[in-house]
Amino acid sequence: MLARKRKLLTLSATSAIVILAAIFISTLRSNLIDVLRCPLQVFSFLGGEINSIASYRRISAQNQRLERQVGLNQRQLYESSELHLENIRIRELLDFKQMSVYPLTATGVIGYDPSNLSSIVLIDKGRQQGITRDCAVITNDGLVGRIIEAGDSVSKVLLVNDVNSGVAAFIQRSRHSGLVTGKLGGGIILRYLSPDADIQVSDLVVTSGLGGLYPKGILIGKVTRILREENQPEIFAVIESSADLNRLEELLVVIKK
Amino acid sequence: MKKIKKFFRNYHLQIKVFTALFTIMFLQSTLLNHFRIFNVKPDLMLVSMVIVSFFLDLKGALGFAFLNGIFRDLLGVSPHGFNTIMFMLWVILIRRISKNLTVENSLIRSGILCLVILLNNLAGQLMRFVLDKPVESSIFLNIIIIETLSTVLIALPIYKLFTRIFGAEIVRNVSLVRK
Question: Which single residue of A155, B83, B85, B169 could bond B69 by disulfide (Cβ 3.0 to 4.6 Å)?
Answer without folding.
Answer: B83
